[in-house]
Specification:
By secondary structure, the protein is an alpha+beta fold. It contains five helices and three strands; from the N terminus they run E-H-E-H-H-H-H-E. The longest helix has 18 residues, at about 50-70.
Length: about 130
């Protein structure tokens, strides 16, 4: 039995903050210093014989991302993605992009399939490391 390492997705990073009194409400976004990352293939991007299942997966991915766009902190996502070597996200999330299924599937990949395996999170306000 192989033990799976605990990892952190960029979606998770987007919600994390230092809530201690010392941070005075400025503990977000945490700075990522990555020493190991893992990028998984999206199940819908690999070749499969069941195309209807793949289409359903793609629809689920698009619906999921549409559902969380309102709570995503886009600047924090840009910072986190950049720290993990991903510099392809647009600087601004436009209404056109938010309605583009191809972009939403790519964003799903960034949020769910890019994992921080090892590294450090640092509070921007206090320098505290997690």
């Amino acid at each position: 039995q192989q033990h799976q390492k605990a990892t952190m997705r960029l979606l998770t990073h987007n919600t994390l903050r230092n809530n201690t009194a010392e941070a005075e409400g400025r503990g977000h976004p945490l700075k990522i210093t990555a020493t190991e990352i893992r990028v998984e293939d999206s199940p819908t991007s690999s070749s499969t014989t069941n195309t209807s299942s793949s289409a359903e997966d793609a629809q689920r991915e698009v619906a999921f991302v549409k559902g969380i766009l309102g709570i995503l902190d886009w600047p924090a996502l840009l910072q986190g993605a950049s720290a993990l070597g991903l510099r392809t996200l647009p600087p601004v999330l436009t209404e056109e992009l938010a309605a583009d299924p191809q972009f939403l599937r790519a964003l799903h990949h960034v949020l769910m399939n890019v994992h921080l395996v090892r590294g450090m999170l640092t509070c921007p306000a206090t320098g505290r490391e997690f």
